[in-house]
Design a protein that fits this description.
The complex is a heterodimer of chains A (112) and B (114). Chain A contains no helices and 11 strands. Chain A is an all-beta fold. In chain B, strands 2, 5, 6, 10, 11 and 12 form a 6-stranded mixed sheet that branches. In chain B, a hairpin with a 6-residue loop joins strand 10 and strand 11. Classes of the chains: A mainly beta (112), B mainly beta (114).
């Protein structure tokens, strides 16, 4: 059983489109995250979210928005995609923010 | 704010030998947590080892151990008896402060040669 899953694994789209990446965790964790990993492998947190609090990295454009229908899911919605959004996006979860994060397999997004 | 620095972009080691990856961090908080994560070519991020700052004893996990020097704000990872499967990017990370938002270093690419 996959602990943290993401769909799709690959996403190729045109500039200006709107897309979503889904994330689900079956670990019963209360905190979920989204990260962006650029071509140089730099991993930057975008959002941290639990059922009480959303913390947004202030450098993230407001075209990016997390949506959580329930504790087990944190989807990432991106409006008006730009070339610079091309990257690998990772979802992760943990039980509390101090604890180990479990990562999904990543979604490779390519914006043409 | 916290920072994490990995000064070695790339390292290589022969199979069965020992290698140490460096990590330094900076945080103004007294309570924080340090992590090493591994990202093999499969892209999956996997926890290697975790250290709580208030614990003086260095964390160990099988062939992986850390040298945690709190005063120097250093958190190096030692891999003993290196195996081909250890080939991966290794990321050092720190969480601290009230929000515990993690900060990752830029990673060290480790190649284990047969």
């Amino acid at each position: 059983d996959t602990a943290v899953s993401q769909t799709p694994k690959y996403l190729v789209t045109q500039m200006g489109n709107d897309k979503s990446i889904k994330c689900e965790q079956n670990l019963g964790h209360d905190t979920m995250y989204w990260y962006k990993q650029d071509s140089k492998k730099f991993l930057k947190i975008m959002f941290s979210y639990n059922n009480k609090e959303l913390i947004i990295n202030e450098t993230v454009p407001n075209r990016f928005s997390p949506k959580s229908p329930d504790k087990a899911h944190l989807n990432l919605h991106i409006n008006s995609l730009e070339l610079g959004d091309s990257a690998v996006y990772f979802c992760a979860s943990s039980q509390g923010r101090k604890e180990t994060q479990y990562f999904g397999p990543g979604t490779r997004l390519l914006v043409l | 704010a916290q920072t994490v620095t990995q000064s070695q972009p790339e390292m290589s080691v022969q199979e069965a030998e020992t290698v140490t990856l460096s990590c330094t961090y900076d945080t103004s908080e007294n309570n924080y947590y340090l992590f090493w994560y591994k990202q093999p070519p499969s892209r999956q991020m996997i926890l290697v080892i975790r250290q709580e700052a208030y614990k003086q004893q260095n964390a160990t996990e099988n062939r992986f151990s850390v040298n945690f020097q709190k005063a120097a704000k250093s958190f190096s990872l030692k891999i003993s008896d290196s195996q081909l499967g250890d080939t991966a990017m290794y990321f050092c990370a720190c969480t601290s402060g009230g929000s515990y938002i993690p900060t990752f270093g830029r990673g060290t690419s480790l190649i284990v040669h047969p």
